[in-house]
């Protein structure tokens, strides 16, 4: 491959603009192919990175962008090692393909605050590998030692420091090079972009409206659909007045689907207007019919009858409790919660006979393929999923009911269909954060906590999620096996499939130095549909654990901050963020009259975070004035995004603490819109300060950890203010 500069210029000048360089890295691509195919002129893409002869760089983003910053953060990892500015890379959302699976879940999903943690090394290696190939190709052109060349801002620089060649000119030659041994990643001291404050790459597109969300999709000859669903989960259609609605202006069709009756019209407004004239008779014989009180009564009955499966056992709690001078026993109750994403559920589907194409704001494209396959005559590999930007996810868009509905309507009408849920439908037909019950006991002797017992009562999310998740892991399976795969997955949970920790996460990692610990889960499911919700089990376990810790501090007569600190001697990262949050909040300085502070500490998704909330009561309402947070999330890629996400989690958590409650009356959800399921308003927003630990540990998640500590910290502040302990959410000023 040695050539002089004149020969090189002839090659690069004649190269097609469509030639590209691709990388297939172990664990990142299934095909094992790299480079272009000169016989066909086609290029077989790998999982991550493309460079073209016209100087463009494309990054296939395997995780969705729903406001959490993957579009910027993951691109930065490649840019750092590739030696280009992040702005020089164009991210593109990945199609549904096994190559893009999240290695933690073996599914192509975005959730669990895992995007950065799972991409930290693979994406940097991808960038470094591409850079290495470019340097090797340039060295051959110049006939110099590659170790003497360097890369800078999309070019390879000659050892003389003057001559350089752009990456685009080197693509064809670099595609023929081979990676030599392990690719060295840049040391931290040489980073230009990782750890530096930079703007978001998607900010301009979102500010100008050019970013395409699912609800923005428009297709030629597209029709619009709305669905009337059973007011009780599990209700079935008995009859409906199809002909009356079909005669209305603009109505294209009225069809029964699995979850109700779909009205299809030539405009969204006409579909909604026609829906108002639709009358459906329902069969509720197998429908969920519990009220909120029934749910918690069933939890208490289950807890009384079954102490649950042991999840962590150290020492002998029963013995130490018998010998204790005092045993404190309490119960905490948390309601169902909706996701309330600002972009309601929607999807556009186009069934074309031999294939289907879907445009959707989904957190799980491969599960969306299964959802389409279920309601059509197609196999999953005959379904193309185009992922858009997401107007909020919070776990709701991991479940593909909205995609399934759109696909079924398109299949039955033969038209490209955009299906949109109203806000009321989005609230009343959500899959909710589970309602949970917690029973905690602690033994106290000589002012010291000697034992800790925690019984968690409620459902597991995998029971509801495995329906499409199991088939997505085995897309070759025929459809008649789909439900069987789900059943097998549940039976072999913890053996073939991962253990479902959604009910216990955060509780079993109890960090405090208590010798006798007993943590158990009583698995009971009343039948209300549930799914992941931002911070999942950490959200309800954080409230129970950290509120009870505050109660124990009060019981032993100790300062809540110092009480926790004394029990964290063997947990330096926990203790560090606790100290930082207390210092940031001026913990030992009195607050003004009418206010009080509360503190809480919780580790979730590998991230340590402590928060101090300063709150009061004004005009009969709870008012949060200030939140001071200290976070240790390992190596930070973009400090601004970390602060954004911690602050966003805090506001999300305060909203849940003050307003979050889905109530049931004979199986029907009582809330419908923001008037009775409100979000925090701008005028209520507290001052939020975030202290980020400068760490060299591998990065962990930041999208969710801001939620769990703020809820108990607020409750603890209200106790300090009023002397009344609240053990049920949402919190109230009327105590």
TrEMBL record:
<feature type="domain" description="Aldehyde oxidase/xanthine dehydrogenase a/b hammerhead">
    <location>
        <begin position="208"/>
        <end position="286"/>
    </location>
</feature>
<dbReference type="InterPro" id="IPR012368">
    <property type="entry name" value="OxRdtase_Mopterin-bd_su_IorB"/>
</dbReference>
<protein>
    <submittedName>
        <fullName>Xanthine dehydrogenase family protein molybdopterin-binding subunit</fullName>
    </submittedName>
</protein>
<dbReference type="InterPro" id="IPR037165">
    <property type="entry name" value="AldOxase/xan_DH_Mopterin-bd_sf"/>
</dbReference>
<dbReference type="Pfam" id="PF20256">
    <property type="entry name" value="MoCoBD_2"/>
</dbReference>
<dbReference type="Pfam" id="PF02738">
    <property type="entry name" value="MoCoBD_1"/>
</dbReference>
<dbReference type="InterPro" id="IPR000674">
    <property type="entry name" value="Ald_Oxase/Xan_DH_a/b"/>
</dbReference>
<dbReference type="InterPro" id="IPR008274">
    <property type="entry name" value="AldOxase/xan_DH_MoCoBD1"/>
</dbReference>
<dbReference type="InterPro" id="IPR052516">
    <property type="entry name" value="N-heterocyclic_Hydroxylase"/>
</dbReference>
<dbReference type="InterPro" id="IPR046867">
    <property type="entry name" value="AldOxase/xan_DH_MoCoBD2"/>
</dbReference>
<dbReference type="InterPro" id="IPR006311">
    <property type="entry name" value="TAT_signal"/>
</dbReference>
């Amino acid at each position: 491959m040695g050539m002089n500069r004149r020969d090189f210029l002839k090659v690069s000048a004649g190269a097609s603009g469509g030639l590209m360089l691709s990388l297939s890295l172990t664990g990142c691509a299934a095909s094992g192919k790299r480079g272009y195919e000169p016989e066909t002129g086609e290029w077989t893409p790998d999982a991550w990175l493309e460079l073209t002869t016209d100087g463009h760089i494309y990054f296939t983003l395997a995780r969705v962008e729903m406001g959490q910053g993957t579009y910027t953060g993951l691109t930065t990892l490649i840019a750092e090692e590739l030696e280009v500015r992040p702005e020089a890379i164009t991210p593109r959302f990945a199609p549904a393909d096994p190559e893009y699976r999240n290695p933690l879940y073996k599914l192509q999903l975005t959730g669990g605050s895992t995007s950065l943690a799972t991409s930290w090394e693979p994406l940097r290696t991808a960038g470094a590998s591409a850079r290495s190939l470019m340097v090797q190709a340039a060295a051959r052109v110049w006939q110099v030692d590659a170790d003497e060349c360097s890369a800078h801002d999309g070019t390879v620089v000659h050892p003389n420091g003057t001559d350089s060649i752009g990456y685009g000119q080197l693509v064809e030659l670099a595609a023929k090079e081979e990676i030599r041994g392990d690719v060295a990643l840049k040391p931290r001291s040489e980073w230009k972009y990782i750890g530096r404050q930079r703007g978001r790459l998607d900010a301009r597109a979102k500010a100008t409206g050019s970013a395409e969300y699912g609800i923005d999709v428009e297709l030629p000859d597209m029709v619009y659909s709305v669905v009337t669903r059973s007011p009780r989960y599990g209700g079935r259609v008995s009859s409906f007045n199809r002909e009356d609605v079909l005669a209305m202006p603009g109505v294209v069709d009225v069809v029964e689907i699995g979850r109700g009756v779909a009205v299809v019209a030539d405009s969204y407004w006409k579909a909604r207007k026609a829906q108002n004239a639709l009358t459906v008779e329902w069969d509720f014989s197998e429908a969920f019919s519990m009220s909120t009180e029934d749910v918690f009564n069933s939890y208490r009955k289950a807890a009384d009858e079954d102490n649950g499966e042991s999840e962590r056992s150290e020492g002998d709690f029963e013995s130490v409790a018998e010998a204790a001078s005092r045993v404190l026993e309490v119960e905490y109750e948390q309601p169902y919660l909706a996701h309330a994403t600002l972009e309601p559920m929607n999807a556009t589907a186009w069934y074309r006979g031999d294939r289907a194409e879907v445009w959707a704001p989904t957190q799980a494209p491969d599960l969306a393929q299964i959802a389409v396959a279920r309601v059509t005559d197609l196999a999953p590999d005959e379904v193309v999923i185009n992922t858009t930007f997401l107007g909020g996810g919070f776990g709701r868009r991991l479940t593909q009911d909205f995609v399934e509905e759109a696909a079924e309507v398109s299949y039955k009408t033969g038209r490209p269909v955009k299906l949109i849920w109203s806000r009321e439908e989005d609230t009343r037909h959500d899959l909710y954060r589970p309602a949970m019950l917690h029973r905690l006991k602690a033994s106290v002797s000589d002012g010291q906590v000697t034992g800790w017992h925690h019984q968690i009562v409620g459902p597991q999310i995998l029971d509801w999620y495995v329906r499409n998740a199991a088939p997505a892991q085995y897309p070759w399976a025929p459809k008649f096996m789909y439900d069987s795969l789900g059943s097998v997955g549940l039976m072999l949970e913890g053996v073939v499939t991962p253990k479902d920790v959604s009910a216990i996460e955060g509780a079993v990692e109890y960090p405090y130095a208590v010798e006798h610990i007993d943590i158990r889960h009583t698995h009971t499911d009343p039948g209300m549909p549930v799914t992941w919700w931002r911070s999942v089990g950490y959200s309800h376990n954080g409230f129970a654990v950290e509120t009870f810790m505050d109660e124990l501090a009060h019981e032993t007569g100790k300062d809540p901050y110092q009480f926790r600190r004394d029990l964290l001697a063997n947990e330096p990262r926990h203790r560090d963020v606790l100290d930082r949050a207390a210092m940031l909040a001026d913990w030992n300085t009195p607050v003004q009259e009418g206010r009080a502070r509360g503190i809480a500490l919780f580790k979730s998704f590998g991230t340590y975070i402590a928060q101090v909330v300063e709150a009061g009561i004004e005009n009969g309402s709870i008012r949060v004035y200030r939140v001071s947070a200290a976070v240790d999330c390992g190596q930070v890629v973009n400090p601004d995004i970390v602060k954004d996400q911690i602050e966003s989690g805090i506001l999300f958590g305060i909203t849940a603490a003050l307003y979050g409650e889905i109530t049931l009356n004979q199986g029907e959800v009582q809330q419908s819109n923001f008037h009775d399921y409100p979000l925090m308003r701008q005028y209520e927003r507290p001052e939020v300060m975030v202290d980020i630990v400068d760490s060299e540990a591998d990065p962990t998640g930041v999208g969710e950890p801001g939620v769990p500590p703020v809820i108990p910290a607020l409750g603890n502040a209200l106790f300090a203010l009023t002397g009344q302990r609240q053990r049920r959410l949402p919190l109230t000023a009327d105590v």
